[in-house]
# Entry
Amino acid sequence: MHREPVRHIGPEALAEQGRFAGLVRGHADRPRTYHIVTYGCQMNAHDSETLAGTLSDIGLTQAPQREEADLVLFNTCCIRDNAERKALGNITWLKEIKKRRPHMLIGVCGCMMQQRGMAETVLKQYPFVDIAFGTGSLYRLPEYLYLAVEEKRRVIDVSREESTIAEGLPVLRESPFKAYINIMYGCNNYCAYCIVPYVRGRERSRRAEDILHEAEALVADGVQEITLLGQNVNSYGNDAGEISFPELLRRLDQTGIPRLRFMTSHPKDLSDELVAEYARSRSLAPHLHLPVQSGSDRILAAMNRRYDVETYLSRVDKLRAARPDIGLTTDLIVAFPGETEEDFEQSMRLVERVRYDSAFTFIYSPRTGTKAADLPGQVAPEVASQRIERLIALQEGITKEVLHGLRGQQMGILVEGTSARRQTQMTGKCGRNISVNFTGGHEGLIGHIVPVNITGAGSNTLRGEYIKEEQTT
Ligand code: 5AD
Ligand code: SF4
# Structure
């Protein structure tokens, strides 16, 4: 397979973009405000933080409503058909607004634009869209704006810069005390249903030293929780002769970050060395998102997942032995082509056996260009809906039981704000990433990890009481 060497984009390219940013800043017709609409996973959410950082550097401020903004960016997702339809529907909705506000610029970026021919289609079918660009060239946003504002051109750039890694881009974080760090881009796994390898390209790992510098700067900035992002973090470093993922976790532990998470982890690559980190790491949160996708070996093989149920369960057992308080979450697909009632029952049994804290459940959605799209045995929509409902009901019951089982524990909660329902209560997340609403706190706790006694549980959240300092010492 031909592979382009990874190109690290650094100061020179960014200086050139800085020049475009300066030109836009000084332009009479420049947009003053922006609004970003984000679809999809954390990777996209973090890309949006980078887009926001870039726009804020150019002097734009955030508009709370999209219809009031001078520039609206849609950061799209194409993992399933409904993600695409939602984005296209919302883009269409802006057409009327733009009739009233003709200076409005509309941009579409993200994974959808990486699909072959899609950017051209969007520009053709949505003539009011001004800018279309892919995931590999976010750093060029100042240039696109310059072309749109100064040359009044429609801009399309899906140059498939798949082998680039841009360092040093500005990021405007959504939270002052939580941050994402990309550690790798792309995916090499080609699960039969999944479009990601086609749109996000091959795996490329960032240099460990770049990651560590970013983490150190975040810690110095008071960040309490870092989530490492990658499609398959377990293969971090494999492509670049970098340190291994467990070693990266050890080094990040030494930065003093209070809480560390990562996603996503492919079960086939979950090593004993990584499991051991759960036993020894100071910072690693007791949570792992470990997508299983199916509980049937036959379907797992057809999905090209390269593990079987037994292997998956043995890894779950090892994780729990290393870290008894670990909370597991997962992704499950129902109605993959050829899934029989018996295959589906096996997924139900697996869910009963693992007892996840929660699960994301999806009906299989055929994606053009993937292997599964051409498989025989597509499951009827009514059967698919029935199956997903049964699965959701099962998991809801388990979530409730797991949450009730946590009563009486003392947990560290990263406080995020006041509770939306009861203003007198504070809310935050425990290490297992479950929301906890608690009494006895105050706004001064926001952004800190504080001890809370868990006193009750709802269907998705926990309730608790703040343990005041004097009680703990
Ligand atoms: N159809 C349904 N679900 C999918 N996922 C990925 N591709 C598809 C698809 N074509 C789910 C998987 C993955 C999660 C991010 O999305 O469960 O883990
Ligand atoms: Fe898609 Fe599989 Fe890669 Fe995850 S590991 S992004 S499901 S191909």
About this structure: The chain has 14 helices and 21 strands.
